[in-house]
Design goal:
This protein has helices at 3-9, 14-19, 24-59, 64-122, 127-152, 157-160. By secondary structure, the chain is mainly α. This is CHM4C protein.
Length: 163
Amino acid sequence: MSKISKFFKGGGSAASKCRGGPSPQEALARLRETEEMLSKKQEYLETRIERELAIARQHGTKNKRAALQALKRKKRYEKQLNQIDGTLSTIEFQREALENSHTNTEVLKNMGYAAQAMKKVHENMDLNKIDDLMQDITEQQDVAQEISDAISNRAGFADEFDE
């Protein structure tokens, strides 16, 4: 396969092709790289706009043609800057959506693990055995309360004392 056909069919890592697409981490990294590149281009265009504005002011009424050319370039740069702003907004939205999807996937996976763990814990529990155990506990608590009451009551000692 030629380099050109590889280029147009889409390059990428062999691991990405085997899985059917990039991982969320790979996609997020690429989106962040694109955001950084566009931010740098934004800064560059902003300095170019300022420079063209300075040139236009410098030429002012002395050289109207040069001033108009500088303003036209400034206008072109502003148009490019607006396009980059729109592209950045789209990329930020896509990155946030991908991050949210990845988070939701992880949460769902962890909830599945928790459900499996709960199922495993409850596997050896029988509802009838639990009811019997709870009744036994209640009976033993009643016995303990009766014993405590018997010990804490003064068994007729108050009647024996005469003032």
